[in-house]
Amino acid sequence: MTLKCRKCEILTCLAVVLMGKVCTVMKIYPEEGTEAGALAEEIRKLADCTKVSVEEIAFGAKVVMASFICEDSAGKDYEEAVRAVAGVSEAQVEECGLV
Questions:
Q1: How is the chain split into domains, by residue range?
Q2: Three-class SS of residue 39?
Q3: How confident is the model over 11-61, as pLDDT tens digits?
Q4: Helix (H) or strand (E) holding 82
Q5: How far is 12 from 4, CA to CA, in rounded Å?
Q6: pTM of the shown model
Q7: Residue 45 phi/psi, 5° resolution?
Q8: Contacts 24+ apart (CB under 8 A), 77-84
Q9: Domain topology for 2-98
Q10: What does R_g of the chain's alpha carbons equal in angstroms?
Q11: How far from 60 is each of 42, 46, 66, 90, CA to CA, in Å?
C-alpha cells in the first residue's frame, strides 16, 4: 500500500510509514534584498530537503516553502539549520507529522 503526503507530495510505502518518517514543512522569509529564488536554491542543498517552492504571499512579497523528511527517531531541528543559511530573515514550522 502506498500513501501520499498532502504537503510534500512524496509517495511512501506503508512499511516505511510504520517505521516513523516525519515530514516537516517550513515557511522561510528572505531578508530584504535577498531574491527568493536564490534562497530557495540554497535551502534545497540542506540535508533531508525533499521539496522547495517559492510562493507569493502579498503585494509581491515572496516566501520559500520547504519540506524535509527524516526518521522520527532522528529528532532533527530544521529551524536552526534553515536560519543558518545566509539570506534567511525568519523561519517557522508550518506543519509537522508522520508520512
A1: 2-98
A2: helix
A3: 554 444 456 899 999 999 999 999 999 999 999 999 999 999 999 999 989
A4: helix 78-83
A5: 6
A6: 0.78
A7: -80, -15
A8: 78/24, 78/26, 78/46, 78/48, 79/26, 81/46, 81/47, 82/26, 82/28, 82/43, 82/46
A9: Alpha-Beta Plaits (3.30.70)
A10: 14
A11: 21, 26, 19, 17
